[in-house]
Design a protein that fits this description.
alpha+beta, Nuclear Transport Factor 2, Chain: A, about 25% helix
Length: about 150
């Protein structure tokens, strides 16, 4: 039973990462990462060492309120070791909308994460994904009506 509780805690951690990313809750995203976390997004196209560098990238890439994102992580395969470490693979489906140009990027990828327990809580210490596909989408026939960020301005 202990193993299942650890796996569920890691699932909740990754869900928080995605939720906070899409809500632009940068403090919440930072809480999911260890201080020495590393990231290798898009098959190593974007590599970062340390939580601060990862957060600077994420804020720069998605921080604009005219950029709306949707990240779905599912089908996790999580292995928990006896040493306070774990490894996980997640299937990602994402869609990023650029309101100013009325375009979007849609894609899928496999995330590979490493986790470490710090002070009794799981943290992501290594993360990254390899794309299975990515496509640029014209949203010419789509009319933007609102986002959760419209009222915050």
């Amino acid at each position: 039973m202990f193993q299942l509780e650890e796996i569920e805690a890691i699932k909740q951690l990754k869900y928080k990462y995605f939720r906070c990313l899409d809500r632009k809750d940068w403090e919440g995203v930072a809480e999911t990462l260890s201080e020495d976390a590393v990231a290798s997004y898009d098959s190593g196209k974007y590599d970062f060492q340390g939580r601060d560098a990862i957060m600077d990238f994420l804020k720069g890439a998605l921080g604009n309120r005219g950029i709306v994102s949707q990240h779905h992580g599912h089908h996790p395969e999580i292995e928990v070791g006896d040493d306070g470490r774990a490894r996980g693979v997640w299937y990602l489906e994402d869609y990023v909308i650029f309101l100013a140009s009325n375009t979007g990027i849609r894609g899928a990828a496999f995330y590979t994460d490493e986790y470490r327990k710090e002070d009794g809580r799981w943290k992501i210490c290594s993360t990254g994904y390899e794309r299975t596909y990515e496509e640029l989408v014209s949203r010419e026939s789509v009319q933007h009506t609102r986002t959760m960020f419209d009222e915050a301005e």
